[in-house]
Every structure is written in structure tokens, then in C-alpha cells.
């Protein structure tokens, strides 16, 4: 899909610090807009003095985003995005659908940048896992002793779900920090271990920092093919460890590839295929 000839859109990242946190370039873009699109929360961060028409996204919003070029013909449209629009944000979606030439992005610090600054972590040494539209189970392949992770969640229940999963995987001693409303006037942090996590709900705008600590007796699982047979819950009909290791080495999975596993059985080949890299996918038949 490509944008109509001559159509462009500006995407402005905005954080929990709202209007005060915008750069002069971002403010100029918003003030020049004739139409502002964003969530109701994002639109509420823009001062009343900005005259643009404010149109919140419907839920689900995918169709409205695809129809954006036809929704406001001849008008300057600015889309508001949380933080960095190109980091798991709507900027990435707009570029994918309409092309980079049609999308002008004015970024803001991402929640990952904010979280690493608050934790004192190096960004390049921190693993980021998004479970916004995906199951928390995807975190399993990234957990190992001593590893630092940031989990981008869908809502305020994510920290508790991460804690529950870590405890079940033998990482109940892991240290969790829920960082909410980063950079804003109501910024908060909650800390605890996975096994004793006290908060069923946190603010919806929360990122979860994990310092992985294995419980005594926990055997860490590598992302390399050939997991121990007892890593799987099965009825005995399981491709054995050495066969899995050889099979995956011959399949040579690469990032972004899709595996169709016909006659998958317990699905162990597909599982280990996907553990090689977060972008690997598998379909079991």
C-alpha cells in the first residue's frame, strides 16, 4: 500500500510530560495542524489554545489508520504518538503502509530510554520485550540469570503477570521494578521480587524492569536448539533432544523466517525454531 500522490502526515512523539516536554519543532508541528489524531489521553495533553480539530482513534484503530489519507482530504494532519513513534509505535505502522517519504517523524524519548536512565542501565546491554499485542510467554526465551530486561506491557496488569510467569519458570527471586508515567509529574516506581510481587494492578503506562535471578535448583534454558526433554510437558510423544538439535542445525533458522511444521506433534521443533530469534515464527500443523 502506498500513499496518494502528494499526501503527507506528521507524527509527533509526546510523553507523560505532555506539552512541556515537547521540543520547539514538535510544538510548531502541532500548532500548525488542522487535524490532530491520537488517543483521547494524548489529545488531552495538547493545550486548549491549539485550534486543530481533535479526532480520537476508534478501537480497534487499524482500519482508521489505513484510511487516514482519505479521512481528511486537503488538511494538515498530525498524529500524536507515545514517546518515540518509531519504537513499537504508530510511526512504524504508517511508514510500513504509506512509505517513508510520506511520513515526517518528530521523535520524543522512548519509554525504554526513560526506563534505562532511571535504572542506571545501558540501553544497548538491555533486552526489550514487547507484549503489547503478544503473550507474556514470549519472555521465556529471553530470561537467563543476570540478564536485564524491559517489558513493554499492554496495561497495568503486565507487571503482575510477568511476576507470575517468572515465578513459575523458576525465577521467583528476580527483582522487578514497575516504572509508571515516566518523565511526567506523577511518575512512580514500585519494586519487589517476582515471587512476592504485591501489586495486582499498576498504572496503564508502565514498563517493567526485570533483573533475572534464578531460584536454587533452576536449570537455565539456552536459546540454542536441543532443550532437555524434561523442559517439555508431554505425553511421551516428543522428538528427542539430540534429534531436535540436529534437525534445527540443518534447518538453519534465520531472523524473520517462518517455519511450517507439518505433522508437528508436540510442537518442539517449532518451539525451538522460535527461540532462536524473537522474529522467527512457526505454524504447527
UniProtKB/TrEMBL annotation:
- Any GO BP annotation: cobalamin biosynthetic process
Q: Tell me which domain of life the UniProt entry assigns to the organism this sequence originates from.
A: Bacteria
According to the UniProt entry, its GO molecular function terms are: protein methyltransferase activity
Q: What Gene3D superfamilies does this protein's entry cite?
A: Cobalt-precorrin-4 Transmethylase, Domain 1, Vaccinia Virus protein VP39
- Every copy of the Tetrapyrrole methylase domain together lies at 8-195
UniProt KW Transferase keyword:
yes
Pfam families hit by this protein: TP_methylase
Please state the pathway this protein functions in, per its UniProt record. Cofactor biosynthesis; adenosylcobalamin biosynthesis
Q: What SUPFAM superfamilies does UniProt report for this protein, alphabetically?
A: S-adenosyl-L-methionine-dependent methyltransferases, Tetrapyrrole methylase
Q: Which UniProt keywords apply?
A: Cobalamin biosynthesis, Methyltransferase, S-adenosyl-L-methionine, Transferase
The molecule here is called Precorrin-6y C5,15-methyltransferase (Decarboxylating) subunit CbiE
Gene source species? Modestobacter muralis
Lineage at the top is: Bacteria, Bacillati, Actinomycetota, Actinomycetes, Geodermatophilales
Q: Which gene encodes it?
A: cbiE
Amino acid at each position: 500500500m502506498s500513499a496518494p500522490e502528494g499526501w503527507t502526515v506528521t507524527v509527533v512523539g509526546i510523553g507523560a510530560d505532555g506539552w512541556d516536554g515537547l521540543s520547539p519543532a514538535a510544538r510548531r508541528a502541532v500548532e500548525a495542524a488542522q487535524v490532530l489524531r491520537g488517543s483521547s489521553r494524548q489529545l488531552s495533553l495538547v493545550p486548549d489554545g491549539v485550534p486543530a480539530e481533535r479526532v480520537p482513534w476508534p478501537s480497534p484503530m487499524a482500519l482508521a489508520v489505513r484510511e487516514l489519507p482519505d479521512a481528511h482530504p486537503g488538511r494538515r494532519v498530525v498524529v500524536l504518538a507515545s514517546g518515540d513513534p518509531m519504537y513499537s509505535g504508530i510511526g512504524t505502522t504508517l511508514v510500513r503502509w504509506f512509505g517513508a517519504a510520506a511520513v515526517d517523524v518528530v521523535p520524543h524519548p522512548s519509554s525504554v530510554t526513560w526506563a534505562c536512565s532511571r535504572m542506571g542501565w545501558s540501553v544497548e546491554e538491555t533486552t526489550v520485550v514487547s507484549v503489547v499485542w503478544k503473550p507474556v510467554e514470549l519472555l521465556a526465551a529471553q530470561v537467563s540469570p543476570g540478564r536485564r530486561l524491559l517489558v513493554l506491557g499492554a496495561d497495568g496488569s503486565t507487571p503482575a503477570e510477568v511476576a507470575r510467569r517468572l515465578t513459575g519458570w523458576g525465577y521467583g527471586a528476580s527483582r522487578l521494578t514497575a516504572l509508571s508515567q515516566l518523565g511526567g509529574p506523577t511518575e512512580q516506581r514500585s519494586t519487589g521480587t517476582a515471587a512476592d510481587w504485591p501489586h495486582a494492578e499498576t498504572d496503564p503506562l508502565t514498563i517493567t524492569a526485570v533483573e533475572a535471578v534464578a531460584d536454587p535448583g533452576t536449570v537455565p534454558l539456552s536459546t540454542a536448539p536441543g532443550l532437555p526433554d524434561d523442559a517439555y510437558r508431554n505425553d511421551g510423544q516428543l522428538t528427542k533432544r539430540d534429534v531436535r538439535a540436529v534437525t534445527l542445525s540443518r534447518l538453519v533458522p534465520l531472523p524473520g523466517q517462518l517455519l511450517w511444521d507439518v505433522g508437528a506433534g508436540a510442537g518442539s521443533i517449532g518451539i525451538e525454531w522460535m527461540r532462536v530469534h524473537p522474529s522467527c515464527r512457526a505454524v504447527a500443523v
